[in-house]
């Protein structure tokens, strides 16, 4: 029998490489291969680290080919994630072609919004020192907890926690995780969407008044009718199918938020300050009343940092392999986003308090600009500022509503075992938009509860991630890491209770009503 060459005995065809083990979506989209920058891996050990060029150098070409093929196979199959087929039908996980740029757009769109405009109100009760100190501590704290969430997205090999509630269930247990995380995340999604309808509708009304002027003879719409106009526009934009498809809207929202935030504080500090301005913190005759106002002001600071309930959802839109995990581009995009968020929040808070002091109205810096300088600033600049606020609210509505859309469609697909049709998906989003509209009309004070709601939702940003890190990663007991995260977590819970009490007291006593603009 003729002996066959050695190369034919050991050479095998190369295993086709795929960029990610994710399944195809109904639309046929597949996650792209990582870019050249993302392909630079860390020095961490992997199961295939031993198959290195130095190891392969003394081996002949046929054997080298076999080992290289084996390495590629292990890198792909070794990170094979057990996926729920239902995820391919849901708007958050339908498309997995996200990248660091998308992450930056989404995080910036979710992190900068109308809540930043009321930060000078908190400074009016805290003063310079405590205001800057509390804002700085809150910024660093929430940046650390964001890093925790990004790391925990794939904390368990073969499992991706695509939603905040899923990670809470993995850390606290199935039932307790739902109880702890469901209410604050639902409010931060649905409640913020309702507040955006109120803010956007009232801002559209003021934009119309500025553009139309005193010579306008048309019959203006009422405030509720402007709410309806804003809701209708939001519903039209919400027909985009999934989270990755609104990346362009998130970019528009991020650019408009940065622009109007900069315009508001620049216009404020460039004008002459009111003659009776004072920088002494506002207080009430009784010490207990003043303490409650301070707690409510700290709740406003906490409420200015939102978006952590969307971090896992944003990361779920990215491809992930053993060699190129999704946490790398996610953290890169988050760092860029939160740099710009700091460039928006700190100037608004400091510049707004410098320009108006404790004369700052409860509506925030935009209300102060309109009240003190509406006759000093050109109508064109004022109109442009208000228009940018409307664009930002429309964009923020989409990303904050996406978890609600995902929940609706998850319930439908779990019962029918098939993806939502275009008509069913559109019906869910129309229903959600008008439910938010009716809630906003029935509870028009919802946008004024920044202090209370900042306290109620504070654990999502400041407390739960620290507990999750300890329970899932299980650092060495009594180590610095163990003590540090338990301490931060319980401090967050304590602050949540204190800020909520301060917010409730302020509502009952009408000490701090945070209305953006009071409708006629």
UniProtKB/TrEMBL annotation:
<keyword id="KW-0029">Amino-acid transport</keyword>
<feature type="transmembrane region" description="Helical">
    <location>
        <begin position="449"/>
        <end position="471"/>
    </location>
</feature>
<feature type="transmembrane region" description="Helical">
    <location>
        <begin position="246"/>
        <end position="267"/>
    </location>
</feature>
<keyword id="KW-1003">Cell membrane</keyword>
<feature type="transmembrane region" description="Helical">
    <location>
        <begin position="377"/>
        <end position="401"/>
    </location>
</feature>
<keyword id="KW-0472">Membrane</keyword>
<dbReference type="GO" id="GO:0009734">
    <property type="term" value="P:auxin-activated signaling pathway"/>
</dbReference>
<protein>
    <recommendedName>
        <fullName>Amino acid transporter transmembrane domain-containing protein</fullName>
    </recommendedName>
</protein>
<dbReference type="InterPro" id="IPR013057">
    <property type="entry name" value="AA_transpt_TM"/>
</dbReference>
<feature type="domain" description="Amino acid transporter transmembrane">
    <location>
        <begin position="97"/>
        <end position="508"/>
    </location>
</feature>
<dbReference type="Pfam" id="PF01490">
    <property type="entry name" value="Aa_trans"/>
</dbReference>
<dbReference type="GO" id="GO:0015293">
    <property type="term" value="F:symporter activity"/>
</dbReference>
<keyword id="KW-0927">Auxin signaling pathway</keyword>
<keyword id="KW-0813">Transport</keyword>
<feature type="transmembrane region" description="Helical">
    <location>
        <begin position="336"/>
        <end position="357"/>
    </location>
</feature>
<dbReference type="GO" id="GO:0005886">
    <property type="term" value="C:plasma membrane"/>
</dbReference>
<feature type="transmembrane region" description="Helical">
    <location>
        <begin position="117"/>
        <end position="141"/>
    </location>
</feature>
<comment type="function">
    <text>Carrier protein involved in proton-driven auxin influx. Mediates the formation of auxin gradient from developing leaves (site of auxin biosynthesis) to tips by contributing to the loading of auxin in vascular tissues and facilitating acropetal (base to tip) auxin transport within inner tissues of the root apex, and basipetal (tip to base) auxin transport within outer tissues of the root apex. May be involved in lateral roots and nodules formation.</text>
</comment>
<feature type="region of interest" description="Disordered">
    <location>
        <begin position="1"/>
        <end position="45"/>
    </location>
</feature>
<comment type="similarity">
    <text>Belongs to the amino acid/polyamine transporter 2 family. Amino acid/auxin permease (AAAP) (TC 2.A.18.1) subfamily.</text>
</comment>
<dbReference type="GO" id="GO:0012505">
    <property type="term" value="C:endomembrane system"/>
</dbReference>
<keyword id="KW-0812">Transmembrane</keyword>
<feature type="transmembrane region" description="Helical">
    <location>
        <begin position="483"/>
        <end position="508"/>
    </location>
</feature>
<keyword id="KW-0769">Symport</keyword>
<keyword id="KW-1133">Transmembrane helix</keyword>
<dbReference type="GO" id="GO:0006865">
    <property type="term" value="P:amino acid transport"/>
</dbReference>
<feature type="transmembrane region" description="Helical">
    <location>
        <begin position="176"/>
        <end position="199"/>
    </location>
</feature>
<feature type="transmembrane region" description="Helical">
    <location>
        <begin position="422"/>
        <end position="443"/>
    </location>
</feature>
<feature type="transmembrane region" description="Helical">
    <location>
        <begin position="287"/>
        <end position="305"/>
    </location>
</feature>
